[in-house]
From TrEMBL:
<protein>
    <submittedName>
        <fullName>Extracellular solute-binding protein, family 3</fullName>
    </submittedName>
</protein>
<dbReference type="Pfam" id="PF00497">
    <property type="entry name" value="SBP_bac_3"/>
</dbReference>
<feature type="domain" description="Solute-binding protein family 3/N-terminal">
    <location>
        <begin position="13"/>
        <end position="196"/>
    </location>
</feature>
<dbReference type="InterPro" id="IPR001638">
    <property type="entry name" value="Solute-binding_3/MltF_N"/>
</dbReference>
Length: 213
């Protein structure tokens, strides 16, 4: 989606991959133009311009099937040992609730590390994008370990994610406008729906529903 939207303005995109928080730091202070897949916060708006929304993401609690888990209110998880990935916007909320209810928040550099901690029983739950968590379980962790993990269907949060362009980039506003124009063209042509359909189809092949069985 990012590549094709920029291609509408003949802009070639190159990607570097880094742990979540490191990726944001590189985009804000290094020679990278931006980063993809972030929620909008006041702090991030100080350093970045935000594109139009890319799509909506659900964050859910993953947990080990050997430790049945249910929740209705955020207070219900306050007594647990919760894994969290550095850079995620939910950290302050979960830190406060675990302090109030004698739980514990453990930070890790990546989603994969947290999922492996779930598998080994070192944490009780881990909030993560449903699609990202399922993707990691099926492609980076794999069977049989992945089958020990499932997720609760109730979202901790649901909302759009964005492309971020660093305000340090001289033509940042132009890049955002070019991307937004390209994204609109993808939607008007039907290509956006095709891309999203293929992404969801690929995730279905990775069997997120089977993880819940």
């Amino acid at each position: 989606m990012i590549t094709e939207a920029f291609a509408q303005s003949d802009i070639l995109v190159e990607y570097d991959y880094a742990p979540w928080k490191r990726a944001l730091d590189l985009a804000a202070h290094d020679d990278h133009h931006g980063s993809v897949g972030w929620r909008k916060t006041k702090k991030r708006q100080r350093y970045f311009l935000f594109s139009k929304p890319l799509f909506t993401v659900d964050t859910v609690f993953f947990y080990n099937k050997s430790r049945p888990f249910d929740w209705a209110r955020i207070e219900d998880v306050g007594h647990l040992k919760i894994g969290a990935t550095l850079g995620y916007t939910y950290i302050d909320q979960l830190r406060a609730i675990t302090r109030q209810h004698a739980g514990k928040l453990e930070l890790a550099p990546s989603d994969e590390v947290n999922l492996r901690k779930l598998i080994s029983g070192r944490i009780d739950v881990f909030p993560c994008s449903k699609s990202v968590g399922c993707f990691i379980l099926n492609t980076q962790i794999g069977l049989p370990s992945a089958k020990t993990i499932t997720y609760h269907p109730q979202p901790l949060r649901s909302g759009p994610i964005y492309l971020l362009i660093s305000k340090n980039v001289p033509n940042a506003q132009t890049l955002i406008e070019q991307f937004n124009t390209g994204l609109l063209k993808l939607k008007e042509s039907g290509r956006y729906d095709h891309i999203m359909h293929d992404c969801m189809k690929d995730l279905e092949k990775l069997s997120p529903t089977k993880i819940r069985q």
